[in-house]
Amino acid sequence: MVARYFPIVRSAAPFAAVLLFLPIAVAASPRGFEADVLDELNAMRADPEGYTGELHDYRDRIDGLIAYGTDGEGDFQTREGVRPVDEAIAQLGRTAPLGELRFSAVLAGAAADHVAAQSRSGGVGHISNGRNPGARVVARGGGRYVGEVITYGHSDPASVVRQLIVDDGVPGRGHRWQLLSARYRYAGVACGPHRLWRTMCVIDLSETPDGSPPPPPKRSP
């Protein structure tokens, strides 16, 4: 499901897409913007309750349905106003710290392939070149046991993670559920330009480094 936002002042409006489940070179470790996004995500997971301060600051900038930007972020119209922000604050407040997401080059490669394709086509969603997230990871030599979240239109790591956690306009808050899932242990991030929304950021997640099936749970003796 895609949450759409309608621009009112200066910027293209951001939105996000979530799903449960053109090769380019990828570094062995995240760099620059992608590294900052992964750091921001891990900071949120390490201290969910502490991260509510970021959401309170964002809430204070919402008037009705309008979210007023700061630090170069444009103003935009939300779908639900403060309601999903309050939900996210409450959920983070009762969420125990989560494990760190380790960098996966395979997942980052699959995410980068999607960014490369949509940066040219201007498309949105989880399909590019006829491949869904699992198929993209398989093409990189991994497995299909992956999840994926995407944001469009955000220009800094904090707003990327915030949008996914707030999940305005997304029934079921699928992005939030994914990023607060304790079962995920690895992530790959790729961000880049987008023809329509200026920027996009893809995060692929898995229980294993390459999307292969997780080991079966150990049986009690």
TrEMBL record:
<feature type="domain" description="SCP">
    <location>
        <begin position="88"/>
        <end position="198"/>
    </location>
</feature>
<dbReference type="InterPro" id="IPR014044">
    <property type="entry name" value="CAP_dom"/>
</dbReference>
<keyword id="KW-0732">Signal</keyword>
<protein>
    <submittedName>
        <fullName>Cysteine-rich secretory protein family protein</fullName>
    </submittedName>
</protein>
<dbReference type="Pfam" id="PF00188">
    <property type="entry name" value="CAP"/>
</dbReference>
<feature type="signal peptide">
    <location>
        <begin position="1"/>
        <end position="27"/>
    </location>
</feature>
<dbReference type="InterPro" id="IPR035940">
    <property type="entry name" value="CAP_sf"/>
</dbReference>
